[in-house]
Design goal:
The protein is mostly helical. It is globular and about 70 Å long.
C-alpha cells in the first residue's frame, strides 16, 4: 500500500508564506530586541545593538524593579484591569443578551447608540470626563481609571458578544423558558455557559487594552501611590533616560506577562473572534 504524497505548495503559496513570515518578523523583532537589550550594559547596547548579550545581566531586572517601584505599579494595574474587565464583560454580556434575545421598545435605536462609542477617540471625551470625575470626587482614585476603562471597552464588547449570541441557536433558551425559567435564570444558567468562549476572548482583549491605557491614567491620577504601570514607565524613563539597560528591563517586566497571557490563550481568542465573524 503506497503512502499518499503530500501536496506540493504552489509558487503563489510560497510567496504568501514568505510575506506573512516577513510581516510577523518585522512586528515581533522589536520585542525580541527589547528583551535582549534588557540583559546588556549601556555600553553594550550601543556597541552591539542587534547582537546577543556577552554577559547576561539578570541584575538589571532586580534594579529596575526596585528603582522604579514596579511592585506598587503592578498592584495598581492588576486592580484596575481586573475590576474594569469584570465590570465590562459582565455588563456587555447582559446587554448583548438583551439586544439579541429580548424584544423591547427602542431596542435597535439603543443598540446603534451603544455602537457610537466605537467611533470616539479618547481625547474627545477627556475634558468632559475629567469634569465629571471631579464632580463625583473620583479623581486620584483607582475608580477614576476603572469606570472609564470599563465604559470605553463596552461598545466593542457588546458588538462582538451580540454577534456571538446571534451565531448561537436559541433552542436551549426556549426550552428553559417553556420549563418555567425566568429571564435571569435563562441568562445565567443557559446563555452564559453557551457564550463562555466569546466571554473569555473579550476578557483577554480587554485586559490587553486596559492594561496598556495611558491617556486617562495621565490625566486623572496625580498621586504617586495610585499610578499604573504605563504612567510609571513614562516617569521611569524621564528619570533614567540615560540608563537604557534599566529602561529596557522595566519595559520587559511590564510587557512579557501580558504577552505570555495572550500566547497561552491565543487559541481561545482566535476561536471566539472566528465565531463572531461567521455570524
Amino acid at each position: 500500500m503506497s503512502h499518499a504524497t503530500e501536496r506540493r505548495r504552489t509558487p503563489g503559496e510560497w510567496l504568501q508564506l514568505a510575506v506573512a513570515a516577513t510581516v510577523v518578523l518585522a512586528m515581533f523583532y522589536p520585542t525580541v530586541w527589547m528583551v535582549l537589550s534588557a540583559f546588556k550594559s549601556n555600553r553594550e547596547i550601543f556597541a552591539a545593538p542587534f547582537g546577543l548579550p556577552m554577559d547576561w545581566r539578570w541584575e538589571n531586572f532586580a534594579e529596575a524593579w526596585e528603582v522604579g517601584g514596579l511592585g506598587e505599579l503592578y498592584l495598581n494595574s492588576v486592580i484596575v484591569t481586573g475590576t474594569a474587565v469584570v465590570i465590562c464583560v459582565g455588563f456587555a454580556t447582559a446587554a448583548a443578551f438583551a439586544f439579541t434575545r429580548l424584544e423591547f421598545p427602542g431596542r435597535r435605536a439603543l443598540y446603534r447608540i451603544m455602537l457610537i462609542g466605537l467611533l470616539l477617540p479618547p481625547p474627545v471625551v477627556a475634558i468632559p470626563l475629567f469634569s465629571l470625575l471631579r464632580d463625583l470626587n473620583l479623581l486620584n482614585t483607582l475608580w477614576a481609571l476603572i469606570l472609564p476603562g470599563a465604559a470605553w471597552s463596552l461598545s466593542l464588547t457588546v458588538f462582538l458578544m451580540s454577534s456571538y449570541f446571534n451565531s448561537v441557536r436559541p433552542d436551549m433558551e426556549e426550552a428553559a423558558l417553556l420549563d418555567g425559567a425566568n429571564i435571569w435564570q435563562i441568562f445565567l444558567t443557559v446563555s452564559v455557559p453557551m457564550v463562555w468562549p466569546a466571554m473569555l476572548t473579550m476578557v483577554i482583549l480587554n485586559t490587553i487594552n486596559i492594561w496598556n491605557e495611558l491617556i486617562f491614567a495621565l490625566l486623572f491620577i496625580t498621586d504617586e501611590d495610585k499610578r499604573t504601570l504605563p504612567v510609571g514607565l513614562v516617569r521611569f524613563y524621564g528619570y533614567h533616560s540615560t540608563d537604557y539597560a534599566l529602561v529596557f528591563a522595566a519595559l520587559t517586566i511590564t510587557t512579557i506577562p501580558i504577552l505570555a497571557l495572550y500566547f497561552l490563550l491565543q487559541r481561545h481568542v482566535i476561536a471566539g473572534l472566528t465565531a463572531t465573524a461567521m455570524e
